[in-house]
Amino acid sequence: MTGAIAIGLAAGVLAGLLGVGGGVLFVPGLVILLGLGQHQAEATSLLAIVPVAIVGTYTQDRYGNVQRADALLLGLLSLVGAAAGVAFANALSGAVLRDAFAVLMVLVAAQLARRALREDAGSTSDS
Amino acid sequence: MGRSLKLAVIGTLAGLFSGLFGVGGGSVIVPLLVLWLGYDERAATATSLAAIVFIAGFAAATQGIYGNVHVLDAVLIGAPAIGGVLIGTWLQQRLPTRSISLLFAAVLIASAAELLLR
To answer: CB B109 to CB A109 under 8 A?
Structure first.
């Protein structure tokens, strides 16, 4: 139980700090620290994302940043894709899905590192 | 391509990505809103978050049909994550995020290696 709370807190802090969503941290945390299977970790991550996204949306909407009509349309038009993605995930074995997820993590890491190094290059000119 | 059609394409791709990997789909939505619909980064992130409420909620419900959702674990990680986001947003104004980004990228790669070696 303390493991789950620690994963949630760490994922939230990093999401707020770096703008990387919770899922990419929830899933490996659930697999590595709590021993869930890949399918169960992904499913549980999806449910945990909902309250975090609701609070984030509420905060952003107060600043007037949410384009409500587009968000609603995007959300509704994603439902078929989401159902297909879940069905596809469940058609794959846990091992294949886990390896694909590991590749996704490396891509997110590369994107983060590239962004950080670009900011680094940008900041040398002001110092 | 019309605006609604673009939103339909972005939504479908994000839904597939979210359902397949158990993530929100923001890494698909944000760049496409910027590139295709001329959003600025802040509005893209905010609008993406609102769409993710629907996407992740629906994908979680579909996973529930397969019996994969551990509701108690979801509550145990989701509730502290809300507090974590508030802390992270506060820290963002006060810490050098680029070294944290690099450190975190290293943690992700180590976790990926751990998953691959299982």
So the answer is: yes
